UniProtKB/TrEMBL annotation, chains A, B, C, D:
Entry similarity comment: Belongs to the HIBADH-related family. 3-hydroxyisobutyrate dehydrogenase subfamily.
Any one GO biological process: L-valine catabolic process
Protein name in the entry: 3-hydroxyisobutyrate dehydrogenase
Pfam families: NAD_binding_11, NAD_binding_2
Active-site annotation: 174
SUPFAM superfamilies: 6-phosphogluconate dehydrogenase C-terminal domain-like, NAD(P)-binding Rossmann-fold domains
Amino acid sequence: MASKTPVGFIGLGNMGNPMAKNLVKHGYPVIAYDVFPEACKEFQDLGAQVTDSPADVAERADRIITMLPSSPNAKEVYTGANGILKKVKKGSLLIDSSTIDPAVSKELAKAVEKMGAVFMDAPVSGGVGAARAGNLTFMVGGVEQEFDAAKELLTCMGSNVVYCGEVGTGQAAKICNNMLLAISMIGTAETMNLGIRLGLDPKLLAKILNMSSGRCWSSDTYNPVPGVMEGVPSANNYQGGFGTTLMAKDLGLAQISATNTKTPVPLGSQAHQIYRMMCAKGYALKDFSAVFQFLREEETL
Amino acid sequence: MASKTPVGFIGLGNMGNPMAKNLVKHGYPVIAYDVFPEACKEFQDLGAQVTDSPADVAERADRIITMLPSSPNAKEVYTGANGILKKVKKGSLLIDSSTIDPAVSKELAKAVEKMGAVFMDAPVSGGVGAARAGNLTFMVGGVEQEFDAAKELLTCMGSNVVYCGEVGTGQAAKICNNMLLAISMIGTAETMNLGIRLGLDPKLLAKILNMSSGRCWSSDTYNPVPGVMEGVPSANNYQGGFGTTLMAKDLGLAQISATNTKTPVPLGSQAHQIYRMMCAKGYALKDFSAVFQFLREEETL
Amino acid sequence: MASKTPVGFIGLGNMGNPMAKNLVKHGYPVIAYDVFPEACKEFQDLGAQVTDSPADVAERADRIITMLPSSPNAKEVYTGANGILKKVKKGSLLIDSSTIDPAVSKELAKAVEKMGAVFMDAPVSGGVGAARAGNLTFMVGGVEQEFDAAKELLTCMGSNVVYCGEVGTGQAAKICNNMLLAISMIGTAETMNLGIRLGLDPKLLAKILNMSSGRCWSSDTYNPVPGVMEGVPSANNYQGGFGTTLMAKDLGLAQISATNTKTPVPLGSQAHQIYRMMCAKGYALKDFSAVFQFLREEETL
Amino acid sequence: MASKTPVGFIGLGNMGNPMAKNLVKHGYPVIAYDVFPEACKEFQDLGAQVTDSPADVAERADRIITMLPSSPNAKEVYTGANGILKKVKKGSLLIDSSTIDPAVSKELAKAVEKMGAVFMDAPVSGGVGAARAGNLTFMVGGVEQEFDAAKELLTCMGSNVVYCGEVGTGQAAKICNNMLLAISMIGTAETMNLGIRLGLDPKLLAKILNMSSGRCWSSDTYNPVPGVMEGVPSANNYQGGFGTTLMAKDLGLAQISATNTKTPVPLGSQAHQIYRMMCAKGYALKDFSAVFQFLREEETL
């Protein structure tokens, strides 16, 4: 195990922290960096080398994973004044697991290629829990012959690593899934609410939908109505799960991608607006299935 | 078999015709009526008694099934000048399989109760094919103790008979399912379209969605993108299936129910508008999954 | 003045009360009825005759004005067990100033015609203040040769009486205006909010819009942003004005009319949903321009 | 006149061509560049100097106007390999009249400032006709003390030059106006369509709206219904005017700005989708008021 070559890891936040730990567990020497030095401390104790900049990471590791909150952060880490590209070695493999605009992934890939290195986008699905348990799903875009090399690292952190196509398609797959998820969730919430107001028992209605053509993951696995299922956020006052503010972020990326490709997304666009309004009305940190609560309140005079 | 008591059947259109035939096959003497006399001729040849009005049907049969295209038709057949209620016998069981506004079902139920008879709403899902094959699903609303009597007849025409609650809940369940179906279908169509424009292979994208949280009946069983699945309308130029104009009708009923109960249905409302625009743009008779085609066309200058 | 023939008035609520008083002021003997007897007391003191039912009003007056909160109320007052039609005299003129579904207006007109009387729909715009001041606008639908007779009465209560066409078009005009108003108001609110977040001064932005193609009544006469104009509800914490719950009601009527005529109204439909959500979020009694407040809140984590 | 100092002009397309000609008419020596050499030829004949790159323009003129189709073009012209910034002189005044993302305007302003020059965004409203007639409206963002210098040039091309605030607010004002315009136009189109289907005469309905709270520029100055007004695109089969594809572009910019500032724009977002669908359905080159035609078509089976 000790003979494994080091892996760089940049971005040790809520998601990056448990992901990097899983690399350590699998015996990889980790070269760590985070813009907040405190985030690195824990890794120092675990034997990781902590560096002063993304450039320093690139100097010491030729395989690097980045996990950052937004497109501007990713640009800074790759192409900034102390960015990876300042010192990246030829032939290095750079894997970005951030969820960002696929157009930005393509830009970064071009810049990386110019330096003779390889870039892949590999955003994840599954939240902090899956990151800890090491069973994230990775959706990977990039040159196909490098996929095996990427997979070797990603399987330390996830149970499912899917090749999606050229650079940017990992992001595209994630954005697409989450857009359809948001639409189905809002649709399920408003349908359940309408059914209840028309006199249907919510459990019975869920059962009917789930054996019919209205069935979807939001109705049969993650039902947003309290009392219909156990072990889901709706059974726990919408705590835990996938936060409304994160869903709003992903829907914003979908909007930008759709705008740039001139693709009509009438319901995706409306779903974005609804999650945006929810954020403004105090739901930012609740699970995104709280849209049921947002829509159901009785009118009061 | 000959000893079975007669069953009235009013409304022998695309759906009513094969449904009534299945009653005949099960040995029920059928007392038939349709506003278009030609529609009855076939049943005369099958040995059914053909009558001149709904009232006449009510005089000769104490179990009646109605299958009509809209709320005004249903009102006319029950409460019109020659309607069922003019001659209905006490204790009769009247089952309405039309898809109509649940508020109208409740009105009819009240009028029927005043005459000492019983009314149940029992709309169907599954189109003409399921009607012929006798495997429709019936969603039934009404007094629970009468459900067994209704089920005896309905199982001759359907494979699935679900009790939903008090009068109107059969309609409510159907409307709710179809609203969520429309939302998921449009969502699937725009998601697939966006993914394709972002460089994803449609089959691969469908596979990713179907193993993720974006999964829904429209993505895994009835995918709207040509080439992704076989045996669905999208594989056959959107012929057959469930027509856009019928979906628009059901979404209109959902809108009216939501308006009357002051229920916010932001995506259901938008789905209604999209199917309405499709009807105006020549898609009325195509399967409702043709929304993919409606949204995907390239812009041309 | 004393020689004027009596006028019936049914529905003495927030709007009906000041309207009927203006008839009294103009010297008309008023025959009054309201479902809540207390509502009539004040009119007794003013010398009006108070009756026990709409039928009684019809017995004593051959010109009647009705001002009721909803379609079911209007149906009851005209066609109910003690309704106007039980005792209406031939040649009577019945004017309904309620805001209801135009399809219901047409139904009532048919029933009234059968009795040999005349029905006109004449909904108003302008709220309680305009009702008191006698400067409401009436939009009138019905047979054109009766318009002058209607106008004689309506000018006692309004400053503007517009003939719109056959029965139902008064309702249609009102519903159409309010739908476009709601769309423009929400549009103005979201535009002002976006501009402010992009660094524009709200007063300057309003000025630019008002001299450009974005100009509308909601931007130049009733701006929803506090501080931009004086003497409007936004300058007074959205008190007074036209309540959100009333706007939601009118948008519901627009939806039902659009559904019944198969007319696509994508933004009208979304506007309905937004006012519906506002009602559920505590804005029911605020002026409808409070949509600016509903949309603007900052996201808080 | 001959003593006037030269003005650079980059981007001689549909709009830039007549704008630059108006500078020539006012006696300014023009230093011209366009990516398509043919576009410059006409200016050579008019006595302008034609250059090989934006950098060359910057070398010869210290006041430059740019008029480009999109954000990427603007970035290239300013910061590209042969861009303005390669040779810009200290103290130069660079005015960008392109309609682009205000965030990009801010980026460009920063880069320009670093070189010791001044950047202002000054997008226009009014189409090719107004550009020819020299009565465009300019909405200007940038440092206030430079506004007079900019205004001197812009008044040669426009009749209305409005100072909006810091850099980016010119774009913001334009985007905001056009978003509200699109919302009002679609709203007017669907309202007129609904009114017509409910039996109202379109001219009468327009008159009622225009004297009521539904009044907006789209109803009273640019009515989308053929036969209501003369001299507008709806009177001429929607030819001329402001193309649907241009409106879709501006709405895309509004979406991106709203997404980046987390501003809910529910109707603006839906308006974007509708113009996007119209582009895909063959309306790209028609005036944006053709949305009436898009929505009104009768359903045909």
